[in-house]
Amino acid sequence: MSSTTPSFIGKDGANAGPKVPVVDLNYRIMCPDCKDEIPNIIEDFSAGDLVCGSCGMVLGNRIIDTRSEWRTFNNDEEDNTDPSRVGAAGDPLLGGLDHLDSTTISGRDGKGISATLNRIQAKSIGVRAEKQLLAAWKELATMCERIGLSKLVVDSAKQIYKKIQDENLLKGKSQEAIMTTCIYIACREQSVTRSYKELYALSRISIKELGRCVRVLKQHFDKPVQQVSVTSFISRFSSHLDLSPEVQRGTFLVANKVKQLGTLAGKSPVTLVAGCIYFVSCLSLNPRTAKEVADKCGCTEATLKSAYKLLYDSRAKLLPPDFKMARDVDSLPPP
């Protein structure tokens, strides 16, 4: 018995070859009453129903509108209106209370009852307190932007500020002092280095006042406030001074050795970094002056020179023998 393979003739009469089976993956909906081959199905997104346009039978409900709400180039139109209907994102720190103050009660009842209801509602949801908190958070975000802090630090500062207000931890302190303290501790928590003097430029409160506020808050925190990382200061200040990678690497080596030997024990991290940068910079082909380093690092020139004097006395111990710079340590300028 011979078997034959079905073949098909094309329009031009030629053998079109065997037909490849094709699976129809289309999802077809048909009205069970009309049973039309070409069904007239209507998607009523406003009601969420799937309706037969011929007989009116509801074939489905709660359908999801997958269409775009607006065109992405809608700003080119003349009215230039915002088509969004959902508003701004809610703030999880407020627990949804940031949207409650938008509820209003009509005042046209002629009896004064609506005014009383509005007053009771304002007291019950604490609109005034929430508005004050939102205003403080806005000022916090502005202060953080001025010194280039990320949103992660801003959110952490907001949480700290809310904790201070809820527990009344810094009673009697000014708003500037409280906000600056929140930013300083938030930077520590997120391992972002900002010195006291950098924050002093934000609010002009004294460094002693900021230190007192930080010490008070340390007693009420579950986890200790992290110490400042010297290495992150080196990266930032080196970038401000436009130092070469060789000088940056040498500064890291000197700073680590200084910490081991305790050469600058008792000095602030900013002073330590500034002294190490100036020390290594003097060994390069393009040294920086003491004034340049002091200005970029946020310390006085006298403080920098006092740290450099201690480093100069221990200069033979600070750099490893295998690390070579353009100049030798014996050619360093005397303090």
UniProtKB/TrEMBL annotation:
InterPro entries for the chain: Cyclin-like_dom, Cyclin-like_sf, TFIIB, TFIIB_CS, TFIIB_cyclin, Znf_TFIIB
Family per record: Belongs to the TFIIB family.
Segments forming domain TFIIB-type: 27-60
Function: General factor that plays a major role in the activation of eukaryotic genes transcribed by RNA polymerase II.
Pfam families hit by this protein: TFIIB (PF00382), Zn_Ribbon_TF (PF08271)
GO CC terms in record: nucleus; transcription preinitiation complex
Name of protein: Transcription initiation factor IIB
GO biological process, one term: RNA polymerase II preinitiation complex assembly
Subunit composition and interactions: Associates with TFIID-IIA (DA complex) to form TFIID-IIA-IIB (DAB-complex) which is then recognized by polymerase II.
Annotated PANTHER family: TRANSCRIPTION INITIATION FACTOR IIB (PTHR11618:SF13), TRANSCRIPTION INITIATION FACTOR IIB-RELATED (PTHR11618)
